[in-house]
Amino acid sequence: MPPRMIFKKEEVLDVAYKIVKKDGFEGINARRIAKELNASVHPIFNHFKDMEELKKAVYEKIYEKYQEYMLKDTNGKNSYKKMGLSYIKFAKDYPEFFKIVFMQKTNLNAENFVMADKMGDEVIKEGQLLTGLSFEEQKQFHIKVWIFTHGIACLVATKTVEFSDKEISELLGNTVLEMLKGFKIERGQKSE
Q1: Alpha carbon distance 130, 30 (integer Å)
Q2: Rounded distance between C-alpha atoms, residue 95 and residue 112, angstroms
Q3: I need a labelling partner for 69 at 20 to 30 A (CA). Which of 94, 119, 181, 189 fits?
Q4: Distance spanning both ends of the chain, measured CA to CA
Q5: What is the residue-wise DSSP string for 145-177?
Q6: Tens place of pLDDT for every residue, the chain, 192 residues?
């Protein structure tokens, strides 16, 4: 009898993550993971009580990847814009992950959806450096910016529209500045 292969929890998780990256959660099941491991389903259930627990672990790993994107190269000048560009880049580089995190039914309104994202406060604080708005004003402004940015990201993730990186940068930069002018005028503030 050949020796039994022992797989670490991280190995099982990595295989599931790769499957989800390619095919979303619809592509993941115990048999497929076992086939990729060249093993039975036992290693999966030695580490995870069921597929839901494994999917939760995959989701957490996906979210870590998203946070990595959002925080990469976002220090210094234009960090608010860079975060928007990172959000869209995540959608472009990992469309199935983007759909899982940001294109599922939640029954949340826009404000609650934005604030449910652990990155929400960080993005709002970065936006305040650009706009000079209070946290609450920036939150309201950011929701509008996020809706616009999310629209571009959805178009990119679904490959509905092709944008170059330059087009995305110009579209995001110019539109957000125009939105800021309108937001400040609406509130009776001078726009710079």
Answers
A1: 48
A2: 23
A3: 181
A4: 76
A5: HHHHHHHHHHHHHTTSS---HHHHHHHHHHHHH
A6: 344 567 899 999 999 999 999 999 999 999 999 999 999 999 899 999 999 999 999 999 999 999 999 888 666 678 889 999 999 999 999 999 999 999 999 999 999 998 888 888 888 888 898 888 999 999 999 999 999 999 999 999 999 999 999 999 999 999 999 999 998 888 876 555
> Which residues, in sequence order, are CB contacts of 23 under 8 Å at separation 6+?
96
Q: Would you give the DSSP letter of residue 52?
A: H
Q: Is 75 helix (H, G, I), strand (E, B) or coil?
A: coil
Other C-beta atoms lying within 10 Å of the C-beta of residue 44: 25
| pTM of the predicted structure, to 2 decimals | 0.88
Determine what percent of the chain falls in helix, strand and coil, rounding each to the nearest 5: 75, 0, 25
**Distance between CA 121 and CA 80 in Å, rounded?**
12
Buried/exposed code over 112-151 (b: 16+ C-beta within 10 A; e: otherwise): ebbbebebbebbbebbbebbebeeebbbebbbebbeebbe
The DSSP secondary-structure symbol of 3 reads P
